[in-house]
Design brief:
heterodimer, A: mainly beta, 2 domains, six-stranded antiparallel β-sheet, 2 helices, B: alpha+beta, four-stranded antiparallel β-sheet, three-stranded mixed β-sheet, 1 helix, about 15% helix
Chain lengths: ~180, ~100
């Protein structure tokens, strides 16, 4: 009796590497970027993958410069990924069967380990949330989908208000 | 309760398991070739990678997700779900790792 969580994955709208120092001016600067053309908007999520930190777009200054939250400007040479804060074109179907343990591996990653005698591990990447909130939210969603009638195979967590703070930006599985 | 998707792969009808799938992702198992490969990751570490005509966006992931969910919604005697006509583009190969 297979069950799946449908998990909204916020769209990637731009990515690149900074080539200007925005630390003193609360900016993200990339002379190769086309932020306006790409549709970057205020409120979008910035993941600085070089340092594994997150900030938010406060304003789109130009094609190549963004204003970010105070004190969170990016230094030069930082790889970044900008995700929409609102648009999730893909709702990834994540198995809810045979989950052995859900744990929050870090403030920005929550993992589902499957019971298969091996090491199948699903990692959801999201904006930082309070300790164990990610695990609690996913555990609750797993319980909900497993309580559905057998031919209600999937449960869309998009409208689950408890999930909203997580803002999931990626998923990956390893074995 | 085993379920399969019936698909056309390299002009032949093949069955691809719709059971024990953990997730579907663009690209091969390492994420390479995201427009021409889509992978189904099964619980237990077995993966099926489909090589298909170029598709941008998430159309192939959504097609496989929807198909697997639909297959699992069928009553127990309906073991296969024929999705060949719905394939977003032709599949040329199936690789199991």
């Amino acid at each position: 009796m297979a069950k799946f969580l449908k998990v909204p994955i916020l769209d990637l709208v731009a990515n690149g590497t900074t080539d200007g120092d925005g630390t003193g001016t609360d900016k993200l600067i990339d002379s190769s970027a086309t932020f306006e053309t790409d549709g970057v908007q205020a409120g979008d999520i910035i993941h600085n993958s070089s340092d594994n930190t997150y900030t938010e777009v406060v304003a789109v200054d130009s094609e190549t410069t963004l204003s970010v939250k105070a004190g969170e400007g990016l230094d030069t040479g930082k790889a970044y990924f900008i995700h929409s804060a609102t648009v999730a074109s893909l709702k990834a179907a994540i198995s809810a069967d045979n989950v052995k343990v859900v744990s929050q591996a870090s403030t920005s990653t929550t993992t589902l380990k499957y019971d298969n005698g091996g090491n199948t591990l699903m990692t959801l990447t999201h904006v930082p949330v309070a300790n164990e909130l990610g695990a609690e939210v996913l555990q609750d969603a797993l319980v909900k989908v497993l309580q559905l009638h057998w031919n209600d195979v999937s449960y869309d967590i998009s409208d689950d208000v408890e999930v909203a703070p997580m803002q999931i930006i990626g998923y990956a599985v390893s074995s | 309760m085993q379920k399969f998707l019936s698909m056309t792969i390299d002009s032949e009808t093949r069955l691809v398991s719709a059971s024990n799938a953990v997730c579907i992702q663009k690209g091969d198992t390492s994420g390479a070739n995201p427009t021409t490969k889509t992978s189904i990751f099964y619980n237990g570490g077995v993966n099926a990678t489909l090589t298909h005509g170029a598709i941008t966006g998430d159309a192939y992931v959504e097609f496989l997700q929807d198909s697997i969910i639909e297959a699992n919604q069928e009553q127990w005697r309906k073991v296969t779900l024929d999705v060949a006509a719905d394939q977003p583009s032709a599949i040329s190969a199936l690789t199991i790792t």
